[in-house]
Design goal:
Shape: elongated
Largest sheet: 6 strands, mixed
Structural class: alpha/beta
CATH architecture of the largest domain: 2-Layer Sandwich
Distance between the termini: 101 Å
Number of strands: 15
């Protein structure tokens, strides 16, 4: 352009400044400015790649689109630009060249990496964060107020939903519904921290979402974006909003009852929070929303999932049983003393995780009363543990002596047999190798417990000479009879083990 102007002017021998300005559709001052430049300044301007480009003010929006959708084409980005910025006049070629440079200089291949949607883009993002404030006087009692703050990133329009009890996923969904109906539309994306109401687990930035909330988001039509852990700056607008609600709205106020608190919060939003001059935008959030964001919001109709009835829940006791219709049903050990969701359908009882809604157990309904219905998979397999202990003991002292020792322990203490085996295994391991003579004397007894085994082996360790001489001890008829019965019991148990 500079060289073209100078060639038309031809050192005053060509067209006049007015004629050049008219022909090139430039102002006369621009033509004069370029004619005054010498060759050195012209070369410097041509080499300066940091000159302002017409798309620079939209750069953050384009970067966000590339971060979210790395394979997005330049044509699609231009269409998005036109949908959000009506006054943008730019050619396809300009957009393609600009995006080509961006792809080389900006990391756009990390779809999970968070790049905040900029304030200049209306209707894109809403930041959401729960909070609570203790010690609020409601009806003369100090009460914990649970609330969730919704802040639209562009206009800073705020909505606050409140609850008398801790917020679960169902309440959280209904709060979203109230917020979007208050806004008169739904944004394209909502940003959260890693609350269990949204994200159940994160591993290597791979998110396991709460199924109930994810279903609602799909029906409502917005994307879920979860910040990385311990990264409050990613949603700084709503973090500031939570502090604002605590300090400006609730702190130092007293309320006659809960309905008075709800009415006060609605009035505070309408007369203070959304009409103040916002420090970041320099405008009132409500005015900014009405002027530039309302028409950009997606339409919103309350999904059916919002009006679903509250789930039926039961709390499992310490033994992993829940009560249902005068019977008790087992749940996996991980849910002992926890609350689960219960649903009856088709003659079966379905038990679901309260947060993820995943099925954790299923039982056939029992029509009797006072029954306990257990699934053995929900408990540790005691039979397998006993078998493992018996195998270890047989390996320690030999198969024959091991079976005899196990049979003697079981005949002596059948109700605590597993624990007796665990103790015997540990005692034998601590003592070391046992001679056959010692084992014969040890097993030639009518009764034996793990503690008796320990005491016998301890006495033998201190007086090994006792086994060197065999003393004949007279026995009464009663003793002889008892020993015969004990030997018969041991033989029966050995037969069962075989």
């Amino acid at each position: 352009m500079i060289h073209h102007i100078r060639s038309l002017y031809a050192d005053g021998q060509g067209l006049s400044i007015r004629a050049i300005a008219h022909q090139l559709n430039l102002s006369r001052n621009t033509v004069r400015k370029y004619l005054r430049l010498d060759e050195t300044e012209i070369s410097a301007r041509q080499d300066d790649r940091s000159r302002h480009k017409c798309l620079d003010e939209y750069r953050d929006f384009i970067v966000h689109q590339l971060q979210t959708y790395p394979r997005l084409s330049a044509v699609k980005i231009l269409r998005k630009l036109h949908s959000y910025f009506d006054d943008l006049l730019v050619s396809d070629r300009t957009v393609r060249r600009y995006i080509k440079v961006l792809r080389e200089s900006v990391a756009v291949k990390q779809p999970r990496y968070y790049m905040p949607v900029l304030d200049m883009v209306p209707g894109i993002q809403c930041q959401v964060d729960p909070g609570e404030l203790r010690g609020v006087s409601v009806g003369g009692r100090e009460t914990v107020v649970y609330f969730v703050v919704f802040v639209l990133s562009y206009s800073r329009l705020m909505y606050v939903a409140m609850s008398e009890r801790p917020i679960n996923t169902t309440i959280f969904i209904r709060m979203h519904d109230a917020a979007f109906r208050s806004f008169g539309g739904c944004p394209e994306e909502c940003v959260y921290d890693q609350t269990k109401m949204v994200v159940l687990k994160e591993e290597f930035r791979e998110l396991t979402l709460n199924e109930q909330f994810h279903e609602y988001a799909n029906h409502a039509g917005f994307r879920i974006h979860a910040c990385e852990g311990y990264d409050p700056e990613s949603k700084g607008k709503v973090e500031a909003g939570v502090k604002y609600v605590k300090g400006n709205a609730l702190y130092g106020e007293t309320f006659t009852d809960w309905s008075a608190l709800v009415a006060y919060m609605a009035d505070w939003l309408e007369t203070i929070a959304n009409v103040r001059c916002h420090g970041a935008t320099g405008e009132a959030p409500q005015s900014r929303y009405d002027a530039g964001e309302r028409q950009r919001m997606q339409s919103y109709l309350t999904p059916v999932v919002v009006n679903a009835s509250d789930p039926i829940t039961r709390k499992a006791d310490k033994t992993g049983l829940i009560a249902w219709r005068s019977n008790k049903y087992s749940v996996p050990m991980a849910y002992q003393r926890s609350r689960v969701e219960v649903r009856e359908h088709g003659g079966q009882l379905f038990i679901h995780d309260l947060e993820s809604k995943a099925e954790v157990a299923r039982h056939g309904l029992c029509l009797e009363k006072g029954r306990v219905i257990r699934n053995t998979n929900h408990y540790r397999d005691r039979a397998q543990q006993i078998s493992d202990y018996e195998t270890i003991i047989c390996e320690q002292i030999g198969a024959d002596y091991g079976r005899r020792l196990c049979a003697l322990l079981k005949a002596t203490s059948p109700r605590i047999y597993k624990d007796q085996l665990a103790g015997a295994r540990r005692i034998v391991r601590q003592h070391g190798a046992l001679s056959n003579t010692l084992l014969e004397h040890l097993l030639d007894r009518p009764r034996l417990t793990a503690t008796g085994l320990r005491d016998y082996l301890a006495a033998y360790a201190n007086h090994e000479e006792r086994l060197q001489t065999t003393e004949t001890i007279p026995t009464t008829a009663t003793e002889s009879t008892l020993r015969r019965y004990a030997n018969l019991a041991i033989e029966e148990v050995c037969h069962e083990l075989h």
